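Note to self: keep these together.
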Amino acid sequence: MTDVEELVADEGRLEWDTPLFRTALAQFEQAIPYADVNESIAERLRYPERSVMVAVPVRRDEGHVEVFPAYRVQHSSVLGPTKGGIRYDPHVSLGECAALAVWMTWKCSLLRLPYGGAKGGVRCDPRALSPAELQRLTRRYTSELMGVIGPQEDIPAPDMATNEQTMAWIMDTYSMQVGYAVPEIVTGKPVALGGSLFRHEATGAGVVMVIERACQRLGWNFPGQRCVVQGFGNVGGIAAQELASKDAAVLGVSDISGGIYSEAGLDLGAVRAWVAAHGTLEDYPDVQHVTNSELLELPCDILVLAALEGQVTGENAPRIDAQLVVEGANGPTTIEGDAILAERSILVLPDVLTNAGGVTVSYFEWVQDLGRLFWTRDEIRARLAEKLADAFDRVWALSEEKGISLRQAALVAGINEVAGALKARGIYP
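Structure:
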């Protein structure tokens, strides 16, 4: 057993032990040898600063009360308040939130945002809850977190199965508790409540900005690249649209019902219209229907992973038929899958860089709310492109300098930013 495997096995006895947290920890251990970090600082950064577990009672529409487990994990507040999404999902766990909080720390520090990472969620099936039940769930969850979240402490955002309406309920609940409107308590909220233009599109558009930058570095002609996108939601759907707008060919997309593929390229306008009318891609006409697993193995130039974690594994990585794998989701490639892709010389654009557009524009939203001064869509898009280009260039240069993968370079750059601040601040008391 290697030193990393021993450490990961030891960490597995901690309360937040899950496969996803072990992946985050293993990635950290692989990056640490190349970072400017002593062991004391590395030890501090392995652990979330705070993990909160609460029970959320909700009165169902028929009258009975159901209690849902809920979490909020804050990994690091060294650089500033923590930042991260809230998800509603049957599989939410403390370990999942801890892993996503760790990745958010590296993401924020890599983009040089004054934030640390956080993540929260409620273990529930949101599709089994009515809008009124979802509102009661959200407001009670927010009330349970009073004293934990705040515009200078921890700023939530949308994530899986939450949206701008969820953020509006959180903002209103928090504001009622303190006695005045606090739009800066959340990001990703409606524009009418201080939300930012371009926030909805930011993650998907940012993914394509990073792809475009990578193509320039690789000497590829971006128009004409054959792309497959796993996921057709907020990230994947926008990414597919952005790819098509730049004359790349989108051959396949997928959602919860499965995938569709056309060697000639998809008419994304027609696909979006079908989903709007029918809810999913199921039975979409005149295309080849594939499973989500089969979609990952379709021949293409660029494979965008914009669905769930753990999609490319040691089992299917040998069959990936792409030249560039792009992580629009968090943690879509396992440690084993990553190693196999590297052996096959398939370049991976890592999640902590590639999907950082969302948190970057969330930062812009927070800044606009604090100043009560708002920017145009074009201004925000230009600022995002500048931030992502700077981060990409630093990661690429570090990868070449140290002879490491882009993932390791992205993590090293992020870790060094946090470690430098932690070293300067010291440990209190």
